[in-house]
Amino acid sequence: MSDSSTGAAAGIAALLPREAIKLGLPSTTREDAVEQAGAVLVSIGAVESHYAEAMQEREQMVSSFVGEGVAIPHGTNEAKKYVRRASLAFLQFPDGIDWEGQDVKVAIAIAAAADEHLAVMSALATILMDADQAEALRSTDDPDRVLALLSNTARS
Question: Which of 30, 74, 105, 138 is flagged as catalytic?
């Protein structure tokens, strides 16, 4: 892989504090999952609460489902002003959530004021193309494994 892919994957781990990784959550609704993801971003000081509200607005406009049991909820372009710092939150729902007809087991929330999310989404796409690594993200019970997967994938 290129250096930029390696940097993007390493960047994912840098944007994801360990306290923003929530594993083994009970199944819920798509709306509640997005609300929980926004609440994690607020709790780590990455965004103001208005950004979390805009995540719901964005989800109503277009689903954030990206495949392989993963959704990437994020705020609207107008809500970027509520981002204090670029960050991620990782929420895992092992039993799955009905996400407009898709089964989602991982929601990776993105808070980005500029174009940081583009590199993150590119690196995540690389991760999700590897079935074993995607399954590990969906099923691990170890936050350090999440960090390792997200930071090492582009190099493998």
Answer: 74
